[in-house]
Structure formats: C-alpha cells, structure tokens
Fold this sequence. Notes:
By secondary structure, the chain is α/β, with parallel strands linked by helices. It has helices at 29-43, 72-81, 83-93, 104-113, 115-118, 142-153, 157-161, 186-200, 218-224, 237-249, 287-297, 313-319, 325-329, 339-349, 361-377, 379-384, 389-407, and strands spanning 22-23, 27-28, 48-50, 56-57, 66-69, 96-98, 208-212, 229-234, 256-260, 270-276, 298-310, 353-359, 412-419. The protein has a seven-stranded mixed β-sheet, with helices on both faces. The protein has a four-stranded mixed β-sheet with strand order 4-3-5-6. Strands 1-2 form a two-stranded antiparallel ribbon. The longest helix is centred in the C-terminal third of the chain and has 19 residues, at 389-407.
Amino acid sequence: MSDLAEPVQLPAMAEPFCLRRPILGGVCFLASFAQFFVSQAVRRTQVQVLYPDGTIRGGGDASSPRLEVVRPKALHERMGHNPKIGLGEAYMAGDWRVAEGSDLGEALTPFAARLTSLVPEPWWKLRIFVDTKIPHRHKNTPEGSRRNIGAHYDLSNDLFATFLDPTMTYSAAMFDPQRPSSGQDLEQAQYRKLDAILDQAGVGTGSRVLEIGTGWGALAIRAAKRGAHVTTVTLSREQLEMADERLGAEGVADMVDLRLQDYRAVTGQFDAIVSVEMIEAVGEEFWPTYFEKIDTLLAPGGKVAIQAILMPHQRMLATRKSFGWIQKYIFPGGLIPSFEAIENTLAQHTTLHVTQRHDFGQDYAETLRRWRASFTQHRQAVEQLGFDETFMRMWEYYLAYCEAGFASDYLQVSQIQMQR
C-alpha cells in the first residue's frame, strides 16, 4: 500500500465545531440551523429517517429508503460547521447510516434529485458564513497535479482491483441501450465505451494517438490492437507500473509509448487525441491551458474525443470556488465542468469546436452501483490491505454519493468529439 494511504483523520467533535456563541443549552447557532435545515430537507424528500427516540420523519412511506440517525447532535454540529463537508464526515464517523434492507445509493438519490430546491434561494446567501475556500495546495500546477493525482490514484492498485472489472477501467461503462443494463456484463460494457470513444476520435491502423490520462492502460491497449501508435501520459506511478505490465502481457508494448509526464510537457503531432474523465482533474484555472495544448498537438484533419463528467452550468458557477467533501477526501483539486464551460473555453482559446456529443449518465449510475457492490463484497480484502473502517465508510459514501448524482440526472457523462 502506498505511503499516501494514511488513516483518514476526521475533525474532533469538540472545538472548533461550536466556535459560535452557544445557545439552546449548549448547541451552537449553526448546529441549530443545521438541525432545522435537515428536518426541512427530510420532510420534502421521499425517504424515511429514524431517530434514536423512535421518531420517524420524512416525506416517504414504508416502501421508501430509510436512514437512521445514530448521533443527532454530532450530525447537526458537523453540518453546522460545514454543510458541504459535514454530511459525508458524519457518515464516515457513524453518526448516521442506512437502515437494514435499504440501499445507500437509493437513499441519497431523492436528495440529489431535489438538490437545487432543498434550500430556499434566499438561504444561499448564508453560505459565506460556512463555505470553506479551496486550499492553495490543491491548485493544479504541474507540482500540485502530481500531488493531487497521487493522493487518489496511488492509494493501491490492489484496492482498485477489489471493485473494478478485469479491464481495470475507472470510468463510466457504456451499456447496450437495447437491453436492461442490470443484466449486462460490466467488462463488455467497458469495451463498448472504449470502442465508442476510439471510433469518435477516428482511431485506426497507423493512427498517431495521444491519450491524456493512462489509467491502468485499457484504452491504450485497445487502440494499439487497432494498429494505432499510442503515446499515453499519466502522473500516477502506481498506474504506470501496472499499465506497463499489462501492455507487455497483451503483446502491444512496442506500439505504446508510456510516460510519467504532465500533459503540458507533451510535444509532437497526433491524428487523434483522447482523454477519458481527466478534465475533472484539470481545474477551472487551467481549462484554457488544457484545451490550448490539445489544439497545438492535434495534426491537421485530426479529431479529439474526451469523456467528461458534466454538471449544470449555473450550479457549477455557484459552487466552483467552495471546498466540498469530494475535494477534501476523494479528489483534491477536482472540479466538474459544465458543457457550456467547455464550449466557451474552446471558443475563446482554441480553433476547435464540438462536432458530436453522446450522453450516457444513467450508465454511470449503473457502473457505480456495480463498483459499490463489489467494494462491499470485498470489504475483508480491503481491510487486509491496511485500510480502516473509516476509510471503507468513506468510499462507500463516495460511490453512493456519485451514483445518486447520475441516477437523479443532476450529473451527466458525455463523450464529446471536437474538430477544427
């Protein structure tokens, strides 16, 4: 296990959680406000919430997902300290849990579906009192990017192997729309996704291909088996080592130039440039740099195809400067763009424009559902790798939280083709 996989540290449940003037018998003002907000959000949502005194609240009925609040005061204090981070930290700490017989992803989905309406618009002005700014160390400079990528992808190859399919593909699969996704094989759905983006980029025999973000090598292998010459760059040492082994095992090492390199340092000309769910790690400040570099590297007549997670433009604008749970614990330096932001960046900084787009957000919900089921099934193996209970709860919440975003259509994932 990488040295980066240190035990997850949760804030202590004392000071500074109640720095504001105590009221109501010792419960701080922000905790009281959080308690009111939680009760209002639950009342408007099709779930049930069971409290320690036996009270059941929520807008759902007996058939709805059920959550259990174990330590109400701790939950409200964490959320009062920072609503965007506190709910996830409370789950990590065991302050709340999903009830037996209910599913965490299904329980979070109704909240995600109503995310923009759970808080009345005038209340958003109060965010300035609780929002945390993004730490400067998360800035995606070349050095910062190496640190941010390493914090997630260098945790342990064995960890990712516990829940990914045999292709070791850590991005949305693409299921056959003619059949129910629940009955389809995840590995084949990942190959379908890889083939779709390679087709979108026009990759064939003799193509000079640049891949930004190697992962564990699945796309590079697939492109090389088409007869393409691939240059693929990554900032993850763990992924590089496994990708190198897999390229050799698949007999395509001579077709692939595998590099530990920042995309900003790449030179040359390529007929096709592909990048799967890497733009989320670029950061808004560097979107112009990212697309300008792609524009510079693309040979005349070439095509670009990226797979990107997307969020609504107005929500991106409202939240882009604040620090959330995902950024703190899962993807430091990460920011999901909107489709409008991508188009605007292309128009202002490149000669490229979007020529094709394919959305398959519900496929990502199913992919995440499969990953979480596999992760849960292999809890003992994860524990044997040296990861503690807090870490496992953190990853269960992360996978369910993301699943809810896609299942509710709050988040989208798209394959986007660009040309001059």
